[in-house]
Amino acid sequence: MRKIILAGNWKMHKNQAESLEFVQAFKPEIDNTDESREIVLCAPFTSLTVMSKNLHGGRIKLGAQNIHWEDKGAYTGEIAGGMLAEIGVDYVIVGHSERRQYFGETDETVNFRLKAAQRHHIIPILCVGETKQQRDAGETENVIIDQLKKDLVDVDRGNLVIAYEPIWAIGTGDTCDANEANRVIGIIRQQLDNKDVTIQYGGSVKPDNIDEIMAQPEIDGALVGGASLDPISFARIVNYQ
Ligand code: PGA
Question: Does 203 sit in the ligand 1 pocket, CB within 6 Å?
Answer without folding.
Answer: yes
